[in-house]
């Protein structure tokens, strides 16, 4: 309860990055068309403050965060001591699931990498509704609606957040500007790191869910670093076609766009 009391005394707005001054780049439409999906892409060049957007209407539309919520779920668990560090192991419950990577005992770092829903559902149960709600409110995370079971509100279309708001979240996370200990934010940044070489560092979290109209929603939320410059980005996909490979499409589109913008060569 001490965390709730503390959080009620602060207000940290995860505002998005203003799209009023954004450059609209419709050339990116071809990447979404190639995968037969609707979607949007937003990028912030932190050095110049330049914002580039494709499909601004979708960029400001709130949708379920799906597994991108693992970013915040991890932050809260680490801050409150539910998870002392990223090595907290949770035993497999014995339920065999279609994603074979989830069918074992694992720690937070591995669960984050394979996006294990069961692991983070247990984390949410251990955090509890009241503490979770206090942190969500303090962050002004999307619509802040976590009604229903504490282990599924980010999957069942109660909690919603826009791509623009997601961009604001990861920017604050990168610069230790969220109301969590710096150690906690560093751990989550480390878990988000996917590629690290001499040319660039690529960090992100994916998400995949289904909205009220049975559209499949895909996310890639993160940043890329080259030559000590950081660029934040959010890719969002939507499709009613069950045959579309959303898991690969979201990453393919993200990489294609980044390549168009000259990334991955260490020249940015």
Please identify the structural class as seen in this structure.
alpha+beta
**What is the CATH C-level name?**
Alpha Beta
Total beta-strand segments: 9
- Main sheet characteristics: 7 strands, mixed
Looking at the overall shape, the CATH architecture is 3-Layer(aba) Sandwich
Number of discrete domains: 1
Order of helices and strands: HEHEEHHEEHHHHHEEEEH
Give the strand order, joined by hyphens, for the main sheet: 1-3-2-9-8-7-6
Describe what you observe in this structure.
The strands form 2 sheets. The protein has a 7-stranded mixed β-sheet, with helices on both faces. It has a two-stranded antiparallel ribbon with strand order 4-5. The protein has helices at residues 2-7, 29-34, 56-59, 70-80, 108-113, 117-127, 129-139, 163-174, 182-192, 246-260, and strands at 23-24, 38-45, 50-54, 89-90, 106-107, 193-196, 201-210, 216-226, 229-239. It is 35% helix and 21% strand. The protein starts with a helix and ends in an 8-residue tail after the last helix.
Short description:
The chain is of the alpha+beta class and 268 residues long. It contains ten helices and nine strands. The protein starts with a helix and ends in an 8-residue tail after the last helix.
Write a concise keyword list for the protein shown above.
alpha+beta; 10 helices; Beta-lactamase; two-stranded antiparallel ribbon; 7-stranded mixed beta sheet; disordered N terminus; 268 residues
Helix and strand topology:
Layout: H1 2-7, E1 23-24, H2 29-34, E2 38-45, E3 50-54, H3 56-59, H4 70-80, E4 89-90, E5 106-107, H5 108-113, H6 117-127, H7 129-139, H8 163-174, H9 182-192, E6 193-196, E7 201-210, E8 216-226, E9 229-239, H10 246-260
Parallel strand pairs: 1-3
Antiparallel strand pairs: 2-3, 2-9, 4-5, 6-7, 7-8, 8-9
Helix pairs in contact: 4-6, 4-9
């Amino acid at each position: 309860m001490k965390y709730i009391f503390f959080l009620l005394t602060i207000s940290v707005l995860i505002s998005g990055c203003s799209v009023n001054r954004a450059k609209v780049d419709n050339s990116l439409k071809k990447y979404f068309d190639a995968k037969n999906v609707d979607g949007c892409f937003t990028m912030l060049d932190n050095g110049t403050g330049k914002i580039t957007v494709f499909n601004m209407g979708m960029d400001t539309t709130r949708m379920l965060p799906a597994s991108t919520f693992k970013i915040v779920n991890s932050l809260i668990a680490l801050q409150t001591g539910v998870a002392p560090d990223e090595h907290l192991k949770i035993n497999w419950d014995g339920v065999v699931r279609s994603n074979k990577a989830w069918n074992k005992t694992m720690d937070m770092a591995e669960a984050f990498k394979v996006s294990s829903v069961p692991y983070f559902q247990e984390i949410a149960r251990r955090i509890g509704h009241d503490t979770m709600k206090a942190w969500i409110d303090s962050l002004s995370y999307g619509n802040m609606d976590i009604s229903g079971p504490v282990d599924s509100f980010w999957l069942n279309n109660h909690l919603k957040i826009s791509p623009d708001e997601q961009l604001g979240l990861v920017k604050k996370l990168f610069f230790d500007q969220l109301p969590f200990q710096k150690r906690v934010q560093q751990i989550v940044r480390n878990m988000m790191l996917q590629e690290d070489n001499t040319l660039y560092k690529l960090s992100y979290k994916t998400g995949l869910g289904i909205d009220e109209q049975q559209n499949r929603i895909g996310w890639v939320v993160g940043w890329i670093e080259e030559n000590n410059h950081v660029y934040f980005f959010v890719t969002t996909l939507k499709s009613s076609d069950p045959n579309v490979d959303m898991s690969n499409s979201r990453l393919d589109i993200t990489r294609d766009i980044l390549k168009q913008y000259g990334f991955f060569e260490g020249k940015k």
